[in-house]
Amino acid sequence: APTAFATGTITSSSAVLNWTAPSDNGGSAITDYVVETSRDGSTWSAVPHTASSATSMTLSGLAPGTTYQVRIATKTAVGTSETLAGSFTTVAGPPLAPQNLAATSVTGTTLTLTWELPSSNGGSPITDYTVEVSSNGGSSWSAITHAASNALSFNVTGLLKGRSYQFRVSTKTAIGTSTAT
C-alpha cells in the first residue's frame, strides 16, 4: 500500500491529495493508483482519472464544509494493494441563494412567500433567510424584521391594496449571506 497520506491546498470545492509510493511494488512497476472517496465511510466512489504513477491528485467538484474519507491503493500488472486511508474536510463557504421563490395565498393585504432550499448551504447550517421588499420597482429594498427561522416560507402582512411589490430572499449561515433570489 502507499504510505504517508497528506493533503495540500484545500478549498471549498477542491483538495490536493498527496501520498508516498510503497517501498515494495511486488516486483511489478506501478501503473496507477486507485483513489476512492466517501462521505459516510460505507459508500465509496472511484475518482475518475487517467492512469498514472503520480503520487498526487487534485479532486474537484467537492461540496463545501464536507468531510471526505479517502482510500488509495497501488495498482500494478500483478494486482491491487491494500489501501491507505485518510480524510479531509473542505472549507465552508457562503451559501447559495434559495430556489424557486413564489408568492401564494395573495389577498389584498397579505401573501405567503415560499421557496426551496439552496443547492448548497456552503457547509454551514442555515440559520435564517433575509426577506426583503421593494415597492418602487427594485430601486430600493427594505428587510422585513422577523425572528430568525430556517423555514421555507414567510407570511407577509400589512401590504397596501393596489400597490405593486417585489420580494427577494437570501440564505443566511454563520459563514455569510447569499445573493438574493
Structure description:
The termini are far apart. β6 and β7 form a beta hairpin. Strands 4-3-6-7 form a four-stranded antiparallel beta sheet, with no helix packed on it. A three-stranded antiparallel beta sheet has the order 1-2-5, with no helix packed on it. It contains no helices and 13 strands. The chain is rod-shaped and about 85 Å long. It is 0% helix and 48% strand. By secondary structure, it is mainly beta.
Summarize the model shown.
The protein has 181 residues and is mainly β. The protein has strands at 3-10, 14-20, 30-38, 45-46, 56-60, 67-76, 80-89, 99-104, 111-116, 126-134, 142-143, 153-156, 166-173.
Distinctive features:
four-stranded antiparallel sheet, three-stranded antiparallel sheet, 13 strands, 0% helix, 48% strand, rod-shaped
Proportion of beta-strand residues? over 45%
Unreliable residue runs: none
What radius of gyration results from the CA coordinates? 24 Å
- The succession of helices and strands, N to C, reads EEEEEEEEEEEEE
The number of distinct helices, counting runs of at least 4 residues, comes to 0
Percent of residues in helices comes to under 10%
Task: Indicate the multimeric state.
Answer: single chain
Can you summarize the main beta sheet? 4 strands, antiparallel
Count of strand segments: 13
| Average pLDDT rating | 95
Structural class: mainly beta
| Shape estimate | rod-shaped
Cross-sheet strand order for the largest sheet? 4-3-6-7
